[in-house]
User: Fold these one by one.
Assistant:
Number 1:
Amino acid sequence: MTVKRIESGGHTPHRTLARLVERLREQGIRDERVLQAIGKVPRQQFVEQGLAYSAYDDTPLPIGYQQTISQPFVVARMLELLHAGRVGLGRTLEVGAGCGYQAAVLSHLASDVYAVERIRPLLDRARDNLRPFRFANVRLKYADGSLGLPEAAPFDTIIVAAAAREVPQALKDQLAEGGRLILPVGGLNQVLLLVERQGGVFRESRYEAVRFVPLLSGTE
Ligand code: SAH
């Protein structure tokens, strides 16, 4: 007997976290620890219920307040560049916590995660989203992350989830010796920029084109 499966709504059913990880691998993400970290975080729990069917698509999704949860491939790519050749990410600052998704992924790769957000209701949402996971190494902070987080500096890793016109000086200053900072830079045309601090010198490397919401100053 043939069992006919009825597919609904034009969306491919059975999208899963495991499939998303497979897809990232096919797209060229090689770092197993990064893939594992992404595979541990149910992205579905960070988006509104109405978007749950898209949670494991490799796309950005709206999280309100004109902000988006980043595209998994871009999260993976940034983490891979930060992680390459290192044992872990160490003390990590995330600028732009949004819904808390990337902070959850970071918790599996970093010793400590300080995630900063400038929109209060989003920070509250990140806190609610992260609570069930009980990560002992993630702290959220309501602040303008373009100023870094002086009280917790220096950082081995800084990851910025919003695009800056140029690298904020405060972030460079708060990078530990041997530390790495990654951020999208540009206006309409943005690229990923990796900054490595070595012996007082900041080495910059540019990677692929990306599209992020802008890094804004102040809090709201
Ligand atoms: N990493 C997030 C993606 C959030 S989108 C996630 O996983 O959901 C980028 C976020 O950066 C937005 O929430 C935006 O409010 C925030 N942002 C922009 N400029 C900022 C700044 N100067 N300080 C802190 N957060 C900022």
Number 2:
Amino acid sequence: MKAECKKIGLKEAGALLLAPEHRRIALAVHTAPDGDCLGSALGLGAFLQSRGKTVFLLADDLIGAAYSFLPGIENFLRLEDYGQLEVDLLCVLDAGSLERIGKAATVKAKCYLNIDHHGQNSYFADRLYQDTKAAATGEILWELFDACGWDIDRDIATCLYTAIVTDCGFFRYGNTTPKTMRAAAALLGCGIDPAYISDSLEMKTPDSVRLLAKVLAGLSFAAEGRIAYISVPHELYDPEAQTDSFINYPRYIFGVEAAAYFKAVGPRTTRVSLRSRDLDVAAVAVGFGGGGHLRAAGCTIEEPLEQAQKKMLAALEAALKKK
Ligand code: AMP
Ligand code: MN
Ligand code: MN
């Protein structure tokens, strides 16, 4: 751990965010942003703005069309929009390293705050609030609002609820705890519309559904059916397509213990999503420079699709053997 990275509590995190010397605050999310990091940044950003802060929402990647319903989503900036940015405080949400936020890491800040629920952390920040038991960063933020007595309006609640349900699969995954449900119950009490949120998150373009048909035709197995995987070859890769949920198809097949989704985002760059029943796929992803949680993890392998598949399947088989 860096000597200057200090672990703090929720109230300290709240005081840091509202400190008068922190007038300009940037909130950064990880690349390939999901509902947890986007909802967390939007919810916190809306509150900080209401307290007179100048807030910059930074995402160094395309944001999926499914998130267009989130209040304030149009305010996210990409590096080309801000060039050289200097702020008083940079808060990194739902990511444990500066590498995870891509080019947003070039922003200059007097102070770095990191709020996350992942187990891996590079301890880059001056102050860190990390809770690996939280189902989502959005759950931590709800606790932050609660601990500090901050008001949650309907828009903020919509963002935080989206963050929570994204990462716990609408309360189906093993990371769901009584606290996850209490947070969601409190947010429902703020007047949000849960059906609107779940419908919006499910929405896909016709092209995304057509792509799913092609991808499922290539469903493959390894390790005598204990591993299932699907792939998007580079010729079919569409950065605008909503494909996050594709991993759910290989995942829920009888006999499958680990599922992988390979996406050739470049001719020599393959993004991998991993899911499992109880195999530690975060440990496998860390072996490729990635990370995540026990049952849901990811990494990017700088190899063409086929080589990336070979290496990852070998690593998953080795991990299954050790079980
Ligand atoms: P995904 O498969 O993209 O939905 O990611 C599953 C989990 O793994 C999420 O918690 C991600 O934050 C994490 N994750 C995905 N890719 C990476 C990566 N390259 N480095 C660290 N964590 C990752
Ligand atoms: Mn995330
Ligand atoms: Mn998360």
